[in-house]
Amino acid sequence: MSDLDATHDAPDRSPRPRRGVYLLPNLLTTANLFSGFYGIVAAIDGNFDRAWVAIFAAMVFDGLDGRIARWTHTETQFGKEYDSLSDLVAFGLGPAIIVYQWGVARLAEYNAAWGRVGWLVTFFYAVATAFRLARFNTRTASVDKRYFEGLPSPGAAAVVAAFIGTAHRYELGGPYGLVLAFVVTAVAGLLMVSRFYYSSFKGFKLTGRVRFTYAILIPLVFVVISVNPPVVLLALFGTFALTAPCAAAWRGLRRRPSVGAGRS
After folding, report:
1. Sign of dihedral through CA atoms 92, 98, 100, 104?
2. In a domain, 149, yes or no
3. Is 2's pLDDT higher than 50?
4. 198 and 243 in contact (C-beta within 8 Å)?
5. CATH number for the domain including 66?
6. Fewer CB within 10 Å: N-end or C-end of the chain?
7. What phi and psi values does residue 2 have, to the nearest 5 degrees?
8. 215 or 122, which is more confident?
9. Are 142 and 63 within 8 A, CB to CB?
10. Domain for residue 57, yes or no?
Protein backbone atom coordinates (compact mmCIF):
# COMPACT_ATOMS: atom_id res chain seq x y z
CA MET A 1 0.00 0.00 0.00
CA SER A 2 1.38 3.39 -0.98
CA ASP A 3 1.78 6.34 1.36
CA LEU A 4 -1.09 8.06 -0.45
CA ASP A 5 -3.40 5.12 0.19
CA ALA A 6 -2.34 5.00 3.85
CA THR A 7 -3.16 8.66 4.20
CA HIS A 8 -6.64 8.15 2.84
CA ASP A 9 -7.27 5.07 4.98
CA ALA A 10 -6.11 6.67 8.27
CA PRO A 11 -8.93 8.03 10.41
CA ASP A 12 -9.20 11.80 10.54
CA ARG A 13 -8.56 12.81 14.16
CA SER A 14 -8.25 16.58 13.52
CA PRO A 15 -10.62 18.64 15.68
CA ARG A 16 -13.71 19.76 13.84
CA PRO A 17 -15.43 23.06 14.54
CA ARG A 18 -18.53 22.71 16.67
CA ARG A 19 -21.81 23.36 14.98
CA GLY A 20 -24.19 25.86 16.48
CA VAL A 21 -23.70 28.90 18.68
CA TYR A 22 -24.43 29.76 22.29
CA LEU A 23 -27.90 31.22 22.53
CA LEU A 24 -27.87 33.82 25.32
CA PRO A 25 -24.81 35.97 24.45
CA ASN A 26 -25.60 35.91 20.74
CA LEU A 27 -29.22 36.76 21.47
CA LEU A 28 -28.02 39.89 23.27
CA THR A 29 -25.72 40.70 20.35
CA THR A 30 -28.69 40.34 18.01
CA ALA A 31 -30.61 42.76 20.24
CA ASN A 32 -27.69 45.18 19.86
CA LEU A 33 -27.89 44.83 16.08
CA PHE A 34 -31.67 45.22 16.10
CA SER A 35 -31.44 48.41 18.19
CA GLY A 36 -29.03 49.97 15.71
CA PHE A 37 -31.24 48.91 12.79
CA TYR A 38 -34.32 50.25 14.55
CA GLY A 39 -32.57 53.58 15.14
CA ILE A 40 -31.86 53.86 11.42
CA VAL A 41 -35.47 53.04 10.47
CA ALA A 42 -36.84 55.45 13.09
CA ALA A 43 -34.61 58.25 11.77
CA ILE A 44 -35.75 57.61 8.19
CA ASP A 45 -39.35 57.82 9.41
CA GLY A 46 -38.57 61.08 11.26
CA ASN A 47 -38.96 59.61 14.77
CA PHE A 48 -35.75 61.05 16.21
CA ASP A 49 -36.86 60.68 19.83
CA ARG A 50 -36.92 56.93 19.29
CA ALA A 51 -33.84 56.92 17.06
CA TRP A 52 -31.40 58.34 19.59
CA VAL A 53 -32.83 56.21 22.42
CA ALA A 54 -32.30 53.10 20.27
CA ILE A 55 -28.55 53.81 20.17
CA PHE A 56 -28.41 53.84 23.97
CA ALA A 57 -30.42 50.62 24.05
CA ALA A 58 -27.77 49.12 21.76
CA MET A 59 -25.10 50.22 24.25
CA VAL A 60 -26.87 48.34 27.05
CA PHE A 61 -27.08 45.12 25.02
CA ASP A 62 -23.47 45.53 23.86
CA GLY A 63 -22.31 45.82 27.46
CA LEU A 64 -24.28 42.76 28.49
CA ASP A 65 -23.36 40.26 25.77
CA GLY A 66 -19.64 40.21 26.54
CA ARG A 67 -20.15 40.02 30.30
CA ILE A 68 -22.70 37.23 29.97
CA ALA A 69 -20.35 35.30 27.68
CA ARG A 70 -17.50 35.60 30.20
CA TRP A 71 -19.65 34.75 33.23
CA THR A 72 -21.11 31.66 31.52
CA HIS A 73 -17.83 30.68 29.82
CA THR A 74 -19.45 30.79 26.40
CA GLU A 75 -16.93 33.02 24.62
CA THR A 76 -16.31 32.00 21.02
CA GLN A 77 -14.54 33.48 18.00
CA PHE A 78 -17.89 33.55 16.22
CA GLY A 79 -19.34 35.66 19.01
CA LYS A 80 -16.47 38.14 18.82
CA GLU A 81 -16.83 38.58 15.07
CA TYR A 82 -20.62 38.85 15.30
CA ASP A 83 -20.28 41.45 18.04
CA SER A 84 -17.95 43.60 15.91
CA LEU A 85 -20.28 43.49 12.92
CA SER A 86 -23.23 44.42 15.12
CA ASP A 87 -21.25 47.29 16.65
CA LEU A 88 -20.50 48.64 13.18
CA VAL A 89 -24.23 48.89 12.48
CA ALA A 90 -25.32 50.13 15.92
CA PHE A 91 -22.46 52.56 16.62
CA GLY A 92 -21.25 53.38 13.12
CA LEU A 93 -23.98 53.37 10.50
CA GLY A 94 -26.74 54.07 13.02
CA PRO A 95 -25.51 57.42 14.39
CA ALA A 96 -24.22 58.50 10.97
CA ILE A 97 -27.60 57.99 9.30
CA ILE A 98 -29.48 59.52 12.24
CA VAL A 99 -27.36 62.69 11.96
CA TYR A 100 -27.81 62.75 8.20
CA GLN A 101 -31.57 62.32 8.41
CA TRP A 102 -31.92 64.84 11.23
CA GLY A 103 -30.40 67.73 9.44
CA VAL A 104 -27.17 67.29 7.54
CA ALA A 105 -29.19 66.64 4.39
CA ARG A 106 -30.91 70.01 4.89
CA LEU A 107 -27.61 71.85 4.71
CA ALA A 108 -27.92 71.71 0.93
CA GLU A 109 -30.93 74.02 1.28
CA TYR A 110 -28.60 76.75 2.56
CA ASN A 111 -25.55 75.98 0.47
CA ALA A 112 -24.81 73.11 -1.91
CA ALA A 113 -21.18 72.91 -0.76
CA TRP A 114 -22.25 72.62 2.89
CA GLY A 115 -24.52 69.76 1.94
CA ARG A 116 -21.60 67.86 0.38
CA VAL A 117 -19.43 68.51 3.43
CA GLY A 118 -22.16 67.20 5.73
CA TRP A 119 -22.54 64.08 3.57
CA LEU A 120 -18.79 63.45 3.73
CA VAL A 121 -18.68 64.00 7.50
CA THR A 122 -21.33 61.37 8.19
CA PHE A 123 -19.53 58.94 5.90
CA PHE A 124 -16.26 59.73 7.64
CA TYR A 125 -17.84 58.89 10.98
CA ALA A 126 -18.96 55.49 9.67
CA VAL A 127 -15.47 54.78 8.28
CA ALA A 128 -13.84 55.89 11.55
CA THR A 129 -16.02 53.43 13.44
CA ALA A 130 -14.95 50.59 11.12
CA PHE A 131 -11.27 51.57 11.54
CA ARG A 132 -11.69 51.79 15.32
CA LEU A 133 -13.24 48.32 15.55
CA ALA A 134 -10.66 46.78 13.21
CA ARG A 135 -7.79 48.28 15.22
CA PHE A 136 -9.30 47.05 18.47
CA ASN A 137 -9.73 43.51 17.12
CA THR A 138 -6.15 43.28 15.87
CA ARG A 139 -4.53 44.66 19.03
CA THR A 140 -6.48 43.02 21.82
CA ALA A 141 -3.61 40.67 22.68
CA SER A 142 -0.90 43.35 22.83
CA VAL A 143 -2.46 46.37 24.56
CA ASP A 144 -2.96 47.34 28.18
CA LYS A 145 -6.43 46.11 29.15
CA ARG A 146 -6.88 49.11 31.44
CA TYR A 147 -7.06 51.54 28.51
CA PHE A 148 -8.64 51.94 25.07
CA GLU A 149 -6.64 53.50 22.26
CA GLY A 150 -9.02 56.02 20.81
CA LEU A 151 -12.55 56.81 21.94
CA PRO A 152 -14.58 53.56 22.10
CA SER A 153 -17.25 53.38 19.40
CA PRO A 154 -20.14 53.13 21.92
CA GLY A 155 -18.89 56.32 23.60
CA ALA A 156 -18.68 58.17 20.28
CA ALA A 157 -22.16 56.95 19.34
CA ALA A 158 -23.47 58.12 22.72
CA VAL A 159 -22.13 61.64 22.14
CA VAL A 160 -23.68 61.86 18.67
CA ALA A 161 -27.00 60.31 19.70
CA ALA A 162 -27.35 62.46 22.82
CA PHE A 163 -26.59 65.58 20.79
CA ILE A 164 -29.30 64.70 18.27
CA GLY A 165 -31.70 64.03 21.15
CA THR A 166 -30.88 67.44 22.67
CA ALA A 167 -31.05 69.26 19.34
CA HIS A 168 -34.37 67.66 18.46
CA ARG A 169 -35.90 68.44 21.87
CA TYR A 170 -34.89 72.10 21.76
CA GLU A 171 -35.37 72.47 17.99
CA LEU A 172 -31.83 73.60 17.28
CA GLY A 173 -32.52 74.13 13.60
CA GLY A 174 -31.12 76.64 11.17
CA PRO A 175 -27.68 76.61 9.56
CA TYR A 176 -25.79 77.05 12.83
CA GLY A 177 -27.50 74.08 14.49
CA LEU A 178 -26.93 71.92 11.43
CA VAL A 179 -23.27 72.88 11.19
CA LEU A 180 -22.84 72.12 14.89
CA ALA A 181 -24.34 68.67 14.30
CA PHE A 182 -21.71 67.61 11.82
CA VAL A 183 -18.93 69.29 13.82
CA VAL A 184 -19.84 67.09 16.79
CA THR A 185 -20.00 64.06 14.46
CA ALA A 186 -16.62 64.83 12.90
CA VAL A 187 -14.93 65.34 16.28
CA ALA A 188 -16.38 62.07 17.57
CA GLY A 189 -15.02 60.29 14.49
CA LEU A 190 -11.58 61.84 14.90
CA LEU A 191 -11.41 60.86 18.56
CA MET A 192 -12.20 57.25 17.65
CA VAL A 193 -9.14 56.97 15.38
CA SER A 194 -6.92 59.14 17.59
CA ARG A 195 -4.00 57.98 19.74
CA PHE A 196 -5.57 59.24 22.95
CA TYR A 197 -5.98 56.68 25.70
CA TYR A 198 -9.27 56.28 27.53
CA SER A 199 -9.91 54.30 30.68
CA SER A 200 -11.60 50.97 30.00
CA PHE A 201 -12.92 50.70 33.59
CA LYS A 202 -11.80 47.06 33.54
CA GLY A 203 -10.85 47.37 37.21
CA PHE A 204 -14.45 48.11 38.16
CA LYS A 205 -16.15 44.87 39.23
CA LEU A 206 -19.91 44.65 39.56
CA THR A 207 -19.51 41.76 42.00
CA GLY A 208 -17.12 43.64 44.29
CA ARG A 209 -18.06 45.19 47.61
CA VAL A 210 -18.64 48.92 47.86
CA ARG A 211 -19.59 51.23 50.69
CA PHE A 212 -23.28 51.62 51.41
CA THR A 213 -23.08 55.35 50.68
CA TYR A 214 -21.73 54.62 47.20
CA ALA A 215 -24.59 52.19 46.57
CA ILE A 216 -27.06 54.95 47.38
CA LEU A 217 -25.52 57.10 44.64
CA ILE A 218 -26.54 54.58 41.96
CA PRO A 219 -30.28 55.40 42.01
CA LEU A 220 -29.36 59.08 42.34
CA VAL A 221 -27.57 58.91 38.99
CA PHE A 222 -30.69 57.52 37.33
CA VAL A 223 -32.80 60.23 38.93
CA VAL A 224 -30.52 62.94 37.53
CA ILE A 225 -30.60 61.36 34.07
CA SER A 226 -34.39 61.14 34.16
CA VAL A 227 -34.69 64.92 34.71
CA ASN A 228 -33.47 65.61 31.16
CA PRO A 229 -32.07 62.44 29.54
CA PRO A 230 -30.50 63.82 26.33
CA VAL A 231 -28.84 66.80 28.00
CA VAL A 232 -27.50 64.85 30.99
CA LEU A 233 -26.24 62.00 28.80
CA LEU A 234 -24.62 64.48 26.43
CA ALA A 235 -22.86 66.12 29.38
CA LEU A 236 -21.70 62.77 30.78
CA PHE A 237 -20.42 61.21 27.56
CA GLY A 238 -19.16 64.51 26.18
CA THR A 239 -17.06 64.96 29.32
CA PHE A 240 -15.71 61.42 28.97
CA ALA A 241 -14.83 62.04 25.31
CA LEU A 242 -12.89 65.19 26.21
CA THR A 243 -10.99 63.73 29.18
CA ALA A 244 -8.24 62.11 27.09
CA PRO A 245 -7.39 65.10 24.84
CA CYS A 246 -7.56 67.48 27.81
CA ALA A 247 -5.28 65.22 29.85
CA ALA A 248 -2.83 64.98 26.92
CA ALA A 249 -2.84 68.78 26.55
CA TRP A 250 -2.22 69.18 30.30
CA ARG A 251 0.72 66.77 30.20
CA GLY A 252 2.15 68.64 27.21
CA LEU A 253 1.96 71.97 29.06
CA ARG A 254 3.67 70.51 32.12
CA ARG A 255 6.56 69.15 30.01
CA ARG A 256 7.04 72.47 28.24
CA PRO A 257 10.10 74.28 29.67
CA SER A 258 9.52 77.69 31.17
CA VAL A 259 10.62 80.78 29.26
CA GLY A 260 13.48 81.55 31.62
CA ALA A 261 14.73 77.97 31.93
CA GLY A 262 18.36 77.48 30.96
CA ARG A 263 19.33 81.12 31.42
CA SER A 264 22.02 81.96 33.93
Report:
1. negative
2. yes
3. no
4. yes
5. 1.20.120.1760
6. C
7. -75, 165
8. 122
9. no
10. yes
